[in-house]
Predict the structure.
Amino acid sequence: MIYVYYSDIMYVMDTMGQRLREARLKAGFSSATKAADAIGVSHSTYRAHENGQNDFSPEDAAIYGRKFGISASYLLTGENAAKHKIVSSFDPDIPDRIDSDVKIRSQLKDGEIPEIDVKAGMGAGGEIMIVNGAKNAVQISTEVIRDFWRLPESLLSKLNVVASNVAVLPAYGDSMSPTIHDGDAVFIDISHRVPSPPGIYALADELGGVIIKRLEIVSRPGADEIEVEVISDNPHHKPRILNLSEITILGRYIGRFTR
C-alpha cells in the first residue's frame, strides 16, 4: 500500500481494524499473511480482524499487542494514541465515503474518474494500492493515479453510478476471457463491495495486485461461514471456493473499454 501522510499530527484510528493494521505495518510486517503466520492464527481470522469484518477480543488484542509491541488497550480503544505514535494514513477532514459531492485527495475535478496504476501497488510492500478507510470505505492513494477518464452523465445514469464512485483498472491475463481481455480498461463501482448479486468483481490478490473474477455465494443460509465461489470465465482456469472473510472486494464490475 502507498500511504499519504498529511502532517506530523497524530490521529486516533477510528476502528479496531485500522489500529491493528497500522500497528502491524509499524512492527515491520508488510502483509497480513506474514503477520498471521508469525502469530500463529489463520489467515482468514486475522484478515477479518484487520479489515473490520469481525471485532477481536481482549485476549486477541493481548496476543497482537505482544507481537506488534503495542498495548492491547490501544488496539481495543485507541487510548494514549500519542504515546504509540501511530499516524493515520487518512485525513480526518475527508469524509469516510467517497460520494458524489466528495473529492479525493488529488483534487479531482467534477466528473473525473481515476485510472489506477495497479503495478505501482505491487511488489515490496505486498499490499494493494486501494485501501480500507474508516467504516470500510475505499480510498485511493494519489500516488497510484496515473490518468483520468470522463464519461457522459447519461451513461453513468444508465449504469446507476456517480463518477466519484467509479475507478478504472487495467486487466491483465486471460483468466476472464472472452468476457474481459488482457489490456482492457475495467470500470468498477467502489461503493459496491459485497458479492450480491452474483457477478464480476475486482479483488485484491495476495501479492498486492488486482484480479477480476466472477463471484457467487455457494454456502447455505445459516452456515457458520459465508462461502464464495471465485470463478474465471476462461475454462482453463479452475474455480476456487473461499470464505468471504478471505476475500477483499474492491468494487463491482460495471463495464470495460477494449482495444
The chain has two domains: 16-84, 112-257. DSSP finds seven helices and eleven strands in the chain. Residues 16-84 form a domain with the 434 Repressor (Amino-terminal Domain) fold (CATH 1.10.260.40).
